[in-house]
Amino acid sequence: MSTTPSSHNGRLYIETVGCQMNMLDSELVVAALRRQGYTLTGEIADADTILFNTCSVREHAEHKIYSALGRLRHNRARRPSQVIGVIGCMAQKDQQLIFQRAPHVDLVVGTGQLAQIPELVEQSRVDRQQRLAVSLDRRDATRQQVSDSFVSYDPLRDPEMRPSPFQAFVRIMIGCDKFCTYCVVPLTRGPEQSRPPQDILHEARRLADEGVREITLLGQTVNSYRSVSDGRTWRLSDLLLALHEIPGLQRLKFVTNFPRDMSDDLLQAVRDLPKVARYLHVPAQSGCDTVLKRMKRGYTVGEYREMMHRINATVPGCAVSSDFIVGFCGESEESFQKSIELVREFRFKNSFIFKYSPRPGTKADDLLPDDIPEDVKRRRNNELLAVQNEISEEDNARLIGSEFEILVEGLSKSARKQLTDEPAAALPLADSHDEHPQLVGRTRCDRIVVFDGNPRMVGNLVDVHVYDCTPTTLLGTIVTREVLHTSTDGLPILA
Ligand code: 5AD
Ligand code: SF4
What we know:
Layout: E1 11-16, H1 20-35, E2 39-40, E3 49-54, H2 59-78, E4 83-88, H3 89-94, H4 96-101, E5 107-109, H5 117-127, E6 131-133, H6 143-149, E7 167-171, E8 173-174, H7 185-188, E9 193-194, H8 197-209, E10 214-218, E11 226-229, E12 232-235, H9 236-244, E13 251-255, H10 264-272, E14 279-281, H11 289-295, H12 301-314, E15 319-326, H13 333-346, E16 351-355, H14 363-367, H15 374-398, E17 403-411, H16 413-419, E18 438-442, E19 448-452, E20 461-469, E21 473-478
Parallel strand pairs: 1-2, 1-3, 3-4, 4-5, 5-6, 7-10, 10-13, 14-15, 15-16, 19-21
Antiparallel strand pairs: 8-9, 11-12, 17-18, 17-20, 18-19, 20-21
The structure holds 5'-deoxyadenosine and iron/sulfur cluster.
């Protein structure tokens, strides 16, 4: 059944959990629905269409969605024309199970079928049939067939629909082939596929023309990017070089890196290209070789160390952040202490720490007992976080007294809270009654800095003097220079 855009299609409520890839997917789905006449609402009770963009990486994220769906059961009886959709990773993973657990759900749409959402929502509203649109299971078909069933969703975007006018995510890869034993992503996002460089460059040029200053390239293992185009192979370093030429762009970032694919050409690109952030997120996951082997990460602590030495030798001062899983199957106290030692040795800028959560369909869940009690997982999580925070605060304290060039991102969290609870995206800066509200930006090493400034600085590079810090944030003041920066509308910015 085909549908035609109507001028008014009702109110859309969308809730997004999970990674930056999900944030980008939601942005693109919202843009597509708004083009069809939908308006966004922050009130679930007012919505005609409710979408949950979901995450399956840990069980907790799935529980939250099933609870939210449970709460809608009665709401639905009051609004029979309402369409409820579960989209993204959980949709691909749980499929029919979602209809069984929540019979009032109308749509289950996987990560590879997001382009179909506007049509599926319309169809559901008309005939009230449940619809499932998902990709092939990796075990049920050839690699090519499975890859073809995971379609990357990268429509061109309308500038006013981006969460921030100056920052944008650009997908360069989908899927993952690493199959770490604990991880569900290779199943929910499918085989690794790199987008053609021309498509990425075209999207980036368009974004730059629309005023975007900072692009973050997204991929599950972004540094594994490979694409053959015009008879040559493009690596991430080649992409960065080409993106660097685009006028208007000031910052380029990329997440997430896989340790084994941290090649010298990439590190040299980070060193040589001034627009590229000197910041690498390279998850170590554990500091113990036995655990790394059980996780099937494909490197030893010694190899991770060698990579860190190459990073430090090639890009001095480069900030590195990591992810860790604590309480993985068979992680002894001694193994855990090795993760603590790793954090102490490499002094990561920050680490994201997670308690192991067994995921159905993964090798670890099939073969290894989840034998670390929850309270031990929690204690290890807190302990590792405390060590990381201590290091982050010490390293931030060393930066007190220094000056940094920062890209201004918007009002700080506390300035936003003072105004409204809405996300930064929806907040017109002009609404700030304070002439010098607290702004937030990031250094080239991705360190967060808050300072009082003129909202018209947003999207510009400014110099800031750091006078204090917390483990996560530097506190600064604007450095006044003789030469004034110029804002986007050509007016000088007075610091
Ligand atoms: N349990 C806990 N943490 C996990 N991660 C991935 N899978 C799991 C799991 N089953 C973490 C890893 C990864 C981050 C995005 O989530 O640290 O880098
Ligand atoms: Fe998951 Fe490992 Fe792939 Fe990262 S590299 S997405 S942890 S399987």
